[in-house]
Amino acid sequence: MHQHQTSFTLSTNGQALYEFTQDVESWLASTGITTGLVTLFCRHTSASLLINENAAPAVQRDLLRWLSKAAPESDIYEHDDEGPDDMPAHIRTMLTGASLSIPVVDGQLALGTWQGVYLAEHRRIPHTRRVVAHVIGE
Amino acid sequence: MHQHQTSFTLSTNGQALYEFTQDVESWLASTGITTGLVTLFCRHTSASLLINENAAPAVQRDLLRWLSKAAPESDIYEHDDEGPDDMPAHIRTMLTGASLSIPVVDGQLALGTWQGVYLAEHRRIPHTRRVVAHVIGE
Amino acid sequence: MHQHQTSFTLSTNGQALYEFTQDVESWLASTGITTGLVTLFCRHTSASLLINENAAPAVQRDLLRWLSKAAPESDIYEHDDEGPDDMPAHIRTMLTGASLSIPVVDGQLALGTWQGVYLAEHRRIPHTRRVVAHVIGE
Lengths: 138, 138, 138
What we know:
3 copies of one chain form a homotrimer.
Chain A: E1 2-12, E2 16-19, H1 21-31, E3 36-42, E4 47-53, H2 57-70, H3 86-96, E5 99-105, E6 108-109, E7 115-121, E8 127-137
Antiparallel strand pairs in A: 1-8, 2-7, 3-5, 3-8, 4-7, 5-6
């Protein structure tokens, strides 16, 4: 059994979903592990990870619209000293989560046909986001 | 240290929670692993995994009612070409997630007394759903 | 490759976020594992795990306020025989989740600067909560 780790750096430019499935697949191929478990971990409290449909871009926009409506910037929050998009970003991060676990089968992520891996950026201004990846297997 | 993988196929018949705790426990027993980590991964974007109460069926109905109200079919979505239940299904999947990680203690999933493992089906018509399982341990 | 397990017991006193990052770090240090993967698993259906900002306590109160508003005690639920805070607690648990996976880098959890690990208690009366921890690595 072996393990490997890396870190992905993603530059974001506003509230959107940023797919990085190919980055994970390429790194996984470089490790030589064909059976195992990949874990992705987002090191932020105003950006998160999620898996959703990778075909229709309208899906991604609808997901973001739902999150915007569920935790709107126009609401009153006790924590408001970092701007109106800050507390909504923490709430949207709580709802989508910091970690993803994906089995590795035949040297690839066991994603379904329509599944892509996304970083969800919840802040308005550009950010540099770090996602730590770990794989264990053989 | 050893690892094993399998895939569970679940037939769904409408929006409901489908428990498959016993399938996971039986497979786990067959691997012989007594200490380790089980990961479950749902390969779909309109069905998801969750852990919740396994005693009162009313709890499961209330959870689904909450999801239906939070992302209603009657709302307007940009992505609507696969039917009114499609985009709500993607949103409900985002909120509940694709993966679960459960430690293995004494040869069993470390679930609490009232915890069951469920596939949440968010589409109306029958589907065949695949859940990949991975265990590592000894 | 080695693995270790432990169980954290957290006493809660009402609906709040209870940070236990230091408990996890201390246990991790005691295992001697410097590269690997930590998994935390909450054995309850009315308490959950989440990672969020550890600096401003107002963030934690706003997160809880959002959850209270999203699944209010004043709503009508089919499952209501365990008190008005019971079904909302199951819903809030579904939205935040039972498990967290965090890579271990250089002997520490790969948390970002502002990330803390929290047990979210969703019931009003005091409870004793169990979180199972598993680490694999070397």
